[in-house]
Write a structure and sequence with these properties.
The chain is mostly helical and about 120 residues long. The chain has five helices and no strands. Helix content is about 85%, strand content about 0%. The longest helix is centred in the N-terminal third of the chain and has 29 residues.
Length: about 120
């Protein structure tokens, strides 16, 4: 892998993390932090884009830069797990279950939709 590709991954990955931070702040500021809607929206939109990239057959550097660097740093599995745990820990089992199940089911559906859109192009 060339040095410019390493730099591109670092720069694009940093941009994805910043977009995640801003997106979560905007959504949480508008809808509150009782339920992690920001993380849900981030992960669903990321699944949609990754599905799209798969559908259009992105490979090589495009897959690395768009899929791994940008969307990989934008989406956040660890935050989703921590927020689900915190909901359960706060004696709120149903929101924790809803967060976990909705993220999985809707994330899978978003990836399928993105892939279908990508294949149709």
């Amino acid at each position: 892998m060339s040095w410019w590709l390493w730099l591109a991954v670092a720069a694009i990955g940093g941009a994805g993390a910043v977009v995640r931070f801003v997106t979560d702040a905007v959504i949480s500021g508008r809808f509150g932090r009782d339920f992690p809607l920001g993380t849900l929206a981030i992960n669903l939109s990321g699944a949609l884009v990754l599905g799209f990239l798969s559908g259009v057959g992105a490979v090589g550097e495009l897959d690395l830069l768009a899929g791994t660097a940008l969307i990989g740093s934008y989406t956040t599995f660890s935050t989703w797990m921590l927020e689900s745990y915190r909901l359960a820990e706060d004696a709120e089992p149903w929101p924790a279950v809803v967060n976990a199940v909705a993220s999985l089911l809707l994330g899978f559906a978003a990836a399928l939709l993105g892939r279908a859109i990508g294949r149709s192009i």
